[in-house]
Design brief:
Length: about 220
């Protein structure tokens, strides 16, 4: 996909992403297929303690470097959870004049949850195709490591790295329309990435920061 076509697709995705209406904060149902809250009760060093935890799906994420353009490839999308960090209302309708939808836009690694009976590499390959449009052979997707989130939401994330070319971008990307995904594909040069992660406000999850840092430390041949 050429630059102009990608720009047009991103503009359409952005317009749809921030077209929010009737936003309300309600209680999470106990039968949520995405979240499983539990309370862990334990005794530590003779003291009774407890910790509330939310179990979420494990996932994969991919650091993507386009060797044709010498750019890292990311995705931008609206994240209700990130939007909620800006909202002070505990429940009820949300004032979208006070809290514009763009507050919920995040820049992330290409990623997806593990919800298919496939290997992690194949799941990563599917996400690479669906979100960013690249068709890469499984053997080109290199495993970096698996890390976990250890605060109140718990999950494991497996990180991969892949190098792609313009010729490998054979799909439109932008997410799976059948699943309601609206995704912008964002390319950034190394100087742009460094400027972003050193800015005062980074609208990205820790996995993004970790992935970018890993790339800068381990791929110096692409960072000069």
């Amino acid at each position: 996909m050429d630059v102009n076509a990608r720009k047009k697709q991103n503009e359409i995705a952005r317009r749809k992403m921030i077209d929010l209406q009737d936003v309300r904060i309600t209680k999470c149902p106990p039968d949520s297929p995405w979240l499983r809250p539990v309370r862990i009760v334990y005794r530590q060093d003779g003291e009774q303690k407890e910790w509330d935890v939310v179990r979420v799906h494990d996932g994969v994420s991919i650091i993507i470097f386009n060797t044709s353009r010498k750019k890292l490839v990311f995705v931008r999308q609206f994240r209700p959870a990130f939007f909620y960090t800006h909202v002070t209302e505990a429940s009820g309708p949300v004032d979208l004049e006070k809290y514009p939808p763009k507050l919920g836009l995040t820049l992330e690694l290409c990623a997806g949850i593990i919800d298919k009976d496939k290997s992690l590499v194949e799941i990563a390959r599917d996400e690479l195709r669906e979100e960013c449009g690249y068709e890469a052979p499984a053997e080109s997707i290199k495993l970096i490591n698996t890390f976990g989130n250890t605060c109140s939401s718990v999950f494991k994330n497996t990180l991969f790295y892949v190098e792609v070319t313009d010729e490998m971008q054979t799909h439109p990307g932008g997410g799976a329309a059948s699943e309601g995904e609206l995704i912008e594909v964002v390319e950034m040069s190394i100087p742009e990435v460094k400027q972003y992660i050193n800015s005062e406000k980074v609208q990205s999850p820790p996995s993004f920061m970790y992935g970018v840092t890993w790339f800068l430390l381990n791929k110096p041949e692409h960072c000069s």
